[in-house]
Amino acid sequence: MSISEVKKSAETRMNKSIETLKNNLSKIRTGRATAALLDHVQVDYYGSMVPVSQVAAVNVIDARTLSVQPWEKHMAAPLEKAIRESDLGLNPVALGELLRVPMPALTEERRRDLTKVVKNEGEDAKIAIRNLRRDANDTFKKMVKDKEISEDDERRGQDDIQKMTDKFVAEIDTLVSQKEAEIMKV
């Protein structure tokens, strides 16, 4: 394995950590209705747990309301139950086979709690990035020990990995602060 392969591998894995953070942040409710809000809600469909988006069309009616239209009539009740029992604090209203999901206004206390959750997600992502940095640096040390590269090359590789780590940590900070601003916006 060469230095460039180690760097490329570390960068690919760090990008995956950023994508995971973005995915996790998209699940945090901000008071504004988005179809992605129900992506991680699972519903029982013929004995299998599947995401809501696989059994129904989820649309945004207005800034505070979602509509969930099941593709099969008998799925309305299980969908309503799954949304109600999710950790999102939503209370769907059944209108025939259509479900309307109003977004309750977030209280100031709930907004603060959500910002703590966002900070924890950001911290978890930073830990993942730092672990990837450590793994790359350990690989460099092993390569020096096995006499595949010189100590100067090791030092240059570690410097490059550190710059990459700093760039990704800054991106995490930006994502976290944007999400916090979005949550605190009334």
Question: Could you please describe the fold and organization of this structure?
Answer:
The chain is of the alpha+beta class. The protein has two domains: 3-27 and 107-184, Ribosome-recycling factor (Topoisomerase I, Chain A, domain 4); 35-102, 2-Layer Sandwich (Gyrase A, domain 2). 57% of the residues lie in helices and 16% in strands. The strands form two sheets. It has a four-stranded antiparallel beta sheet, with helices on one face. Strands 1-2 form a two-stranded antiparallel sheet. It is elongated.
| Unreliable spans | none
Distance between the termini: 52 Å
Provide the domain count: 2
Instruction: State the total count of DSSP E strands.
Output: 6
**H/E element string?**
HEEEEHEEHH
Main location: cytoplasm
GO molecular function: ribosomal large subunit binding
InterPro entries: Ribosome_recyc_fac, Ribosome_recyc_fac_dom, RRF_sf
Pfam families: RRF (PF01765)
In summary, what is this structure?
The chain has 186 residues and is α+β, with helices and mostly antiparallel strands. 57% of the residues lie in helices and 16% in strands. The protein has helices spanning 3-26, 76-85, 108-145, 151-184; strands at 42-45, 48-51, 56-62, 65-70, 93-95, 98-102.
